Amino acid sequence: MSNALDTIDKKILNELQMDASQSLDEIARKVGSSKTPVWNRIRKMRDAGVIKGQTALLDAEALGLEACFFVLIRTSEHEADWQKAFLETLHSRPEVLEAHRLAGDIDYILKVRVPNARAYDAFYQALIAEVKIHNVTALLSMEEIKATTVLPIDV
After folding, report:
1. What pLDDT digit, counting tens, does each position of 116-140 carry?
2. How many Å apart are CA 51 and CA 17, to the nearest integer?
3. Domains in the chain, ordered, with CATH?
């Protein structure tokens, strides 16, 4: 649908990314439209899967999740059964905020949020108990320099 998005759609998406709690009236005013057409466009973009959902962004540190680890995983296992078990394990672990399968020397990278190093170790021990992993490297983020959920949409 990205080709079918016009300037107004993109402006609506940008407004929703910045603050999805805005009223339809506010969004309509900012994008130069009226409430009903804006609602119809939002509904259409939801139906098409462009808008996947709405959520509240929480402050991890304020909730005691002060440690962010990037976990690099190498595996010698590439069979379907192993991959299924690995993916089920990742999906069952709330500490895993993101997981990506990579090209190159590293097979997977995880973004893991936990209270501290001891909690990371508990996560690590549970992970390796559930699936066979060849090599795990954990990198502790010392400072979050930029974090956003806003996608770059050209208007």
Report:
1. 999 999 999 999 999 999 999 999 9
2. 10
3. 2-47 (1.10.10.10), 61-140 (3.30.70.920)
